[in-house]
Amino acid sequence: MPEPAKKTEDPAEAPVGEPGVVKPDQTLVPHPTASTQGGTSATTQDANAAEGAHPPDTRQDLTGLFTEKPQSGEVIVGENITFVARVNAESLLKKPSVKWFKGKWMDLASKCGKHLQLKETYDRNTKVYTFEMHIIAAKANFAGGYRCEVSSKDKFDSCNFDLTVHEARAPEGLDIRAAFRRT
């Protein structure tokens, strides 16, 4: 009975023509009993697994739409703050749509007015959409978590950020009680 061929880790040590082994100067020799599965042979799949090859990574963060995400910010009561999101539209088939949320689900599009403005601009030269959320004269109850969602056809991306609102500081040396003292 013939002795089975030894499996070697180094492809340079493998004999030429051994099925399923690829040398740097050699092409893949398929095993005679390998069946075709979905266009690739089982030997090719085994060789890819042995080399550590993985299917392409298609996680959401690699295909994100944002070129600039809104960053968390801090503001003092009564002051203004702007959050900016930029989207590169070169690879998009249609204009992206944006939604701004406070908390988990409150859509801010219906809350636009005196204290909240949403703006959208497009630069034709760079093909970049800029979406802005302006908070004007911030109040203490504006603090919390926000979310920006951008979608275009079959692509989607979202970003969470926080707004911290600090109480207004009283000017040093001013005592409010002095205004009510009798002289």
TrEMBL record:
Query: What keywords are annotated for this sequence in UniProt?
Result: Repeat
At the top level of its lineage, which domain of life is listed? Eukaryota
Bias type Low complexity, positions: 33-45
Biased composition annotated in UniProt, kind: Basic and acidic residues: 1-10
Query: What range(s) does the Immunoglobulin domain occupy?
Result: 70-166
Gene3D superfamilies the UniProt entry points to: Immunoglobulins
Q: Region Disordered: what ranges?
A: 1-64
Name the InterPro entries for this protein.
Answer: Ig-like_dom_sf, Ig-like_fold, Ig_I-set, Ig_sub, Striated_Muscle_Regulatory
Q: Name one Pfam family in it.
A: I-set
Identify the SMART domains for this entry: IG (SM00409)
Q: What is the name of the protein in this document?
A: Myosin-binding protein C, cardiac-type
Q: Please report the organism this UniProt entry assigns to the protein.
A: Ameca splendens
The gene for this chain is: MYBPC3_2
